[in-house]
Amino acid sequence: MIYFTENDIDRLIEDDVPAGDMTSTLLDLSGKQGSISLIARNGMIACCTEEAVRLYKKVGLEVSYSVASGTRLQAGEKLLEARGDASAIHLIWRTGSAMIEFASGIAGRTRHLVDSARAENPLVSVAGTRKHPPFVKKLALKALIAGGGVPHRTGLSDTILIFREHLLFTGGYEELPGVVRSVKQKQKERKIVVEAHSLEEALMAANAGADAIQLDKIPLEKFAGYAGQCRAIDPNICMIAAGNVNDTNAAAYAKAGADVLVTSWMYFAPPADIKAEILPIRTCP
What we know:
Number of strands: 13
CATH architecture of the largest domain: Alpha-Beta Barrel
Number of helices: 10
CATH class of the largest domain: Alpha Beta
CATH topology of the largest domain: TIM Barrel
Order of helices and strands: HHEEHEEEHEHEEHHEHEHEHEE
Mean pLDDT: 96
Structural class: alpha/beta
Oligomer: single chain
Strand content: 15-25%
Strand order of the largest sheet: 7-6-12-11-10-9-8
């Protein structure tokens, strides 16, 4: 679960309404009642509906219906329904809709990639990198998970991933056995991933005792051979395909023996298309 604080919710509202809604105020909408329904225009994977519910409730709306993140919807199906003060509806309408559209676009693209890859290898994992646009980490990660993916790294604090750029300061790949041994002594419960850009680097990493090898931008026709030679050294080693993994090659990398597909492709999905239907509620005199 990706947790959004009350401050996160407040900031979403404040970002669009820094000093009130001038139009609704001038039209004197306060006190008039209405309803809002969010409806899928096309097939989609819903995401961030829970946060939209919190936004709606924050401004005093009564939510009568919502679907959970990860729900697959067809065109015409509702995501959310609420009612209340018309000025509150207009205040939160765009913020809630835009958030769901952005996150659902990522979720849908992730699901497409997962389904494609698992058709060839049911055990493969699709992992989203930390290369999402700035300031949207929580939205991006929630959408990734809603679509069936997993975070590759939520940030620098949660995994040990040794890049070639790190090794420039430790003696290069030739000194990797000592580096891996030292890291394992300091951090015994974590696995160590080493990035490799060639067969030679991959074999050095496997011989050094890496738990996983991240093959970066290795051509598809070479991946299976590289993975096979590394597994000959350590049958349990995890082989990761990274760099330019997308919907055109994910299934092929999975078939070639990748245990994990690492990509940022899902983060740049077009937003889902959602219709907001706003109607007045007539009250008896």
